Amino acid sequence: MGYATFERSRFNFDFNYWLIDDVETMRIEGSQTTFELNLHYNLILVNRNNFALYGVGALGYHYDKKTIEGVEVVEDEEIEHVMGLGVGAGIEYNFGKVSLFAEPQIFFSGVDQFKTNFGARIYF
Predict the structure, then answer these.
(1) Domain 2-122 sits in CATH 3.90.1150.10
(2) Distance from C-alpha of 25 to C-alpha of 70, rounded to nearest angstrom
(3) How far apart are CA 77 and CA 17, in angstroms?
(4) Is 42 exposed, middle or buried (CB count within 10 Å of its CB: 0-12, 13-18, 19+)?
(5) How does residue 117 score in pLDDT terms, banded at 50, 70 and 90?
(6) Which of 13, 39, 40, 84 has CA 20 to 30 A from 121's CA?
(7) pLDDT > 70 in the chain, percent
(8) What is the pTM for the complete model shown?
(9) Residue 49 CB partners (closer than 8 Å, separation 6+)
(10) Residue 44: how many CB atoms within 10 A of its CB?
(11) Residues near 117 by beta carbon (within 8 Å), at least 6 away in sequence
(12) What does the alpha-carbon distance between residue 18 and residue 118 come to, in Å, rounded to a whole number?
């Protein structure tokens, strides 16, 4: 995750890749490739005693490719490219050079997904 900060706001990005098992039966084989790239804007609302509370806005590119082959289906491929807008909130606790955070978000604009990012930020 990349990271840039200003006094009361900051930008960061993330890349998520889903590990989805291929499907194999006697008659059908299928695979799926899914990933997203998101740019987040954080507006810091509270920043006291090593604790921060902030609002999150996001713009994301979401990619989904499904391929199916089988006896009845010669080959079928569906590729979806979607831009999504997200909103959410975040909490963060700073331990000095490392902060732990959680960010629940909901994405709109064709994606319609709810997700929560958990992680650690390391400051150099």
Answers:
(1) no
(2) 9
(3) 19
(4) buried
(5) confident
(6) 84
(7) 87
(8) 0.73
(9) none
(10) 17
(11) 14, 101, 102, 103, 105
(12) 16
pLDDT confidence of residue 71: 61
Per-residue pLDDT tens digits for 8-45: 898 988 898 888 877 777 677 888 888 989 999 999 99
Reported as half-sphere exposure (CB side, CA atoms, 13 A), residue 124 has a value of: 3
| pLDDT of the residue at 106 | 93
Q: Return the domain boundaries, the chain.
A: 2-122
In sign, the C-alpha dihedral spanning 45, 51, 56, 58 is positive
- Higher-confidence residue of 59 and 113: namely 59
Q: State the SS3 of the chain.
A: CEEEECCCEEEEEEEEECCCCCEECCCEEEEEEEEEEEEEEEEEEEEECCEEEEEEEEEEEEEEEEEEEECCCCCEEEEEEEEEEEEEEEEEEECCCEEEEEEEEEEECCCCEEEEEEEEEECC
Spatial distance between the Cα atoms of 27 and 71, rounded to a whole number of angstroms: 6
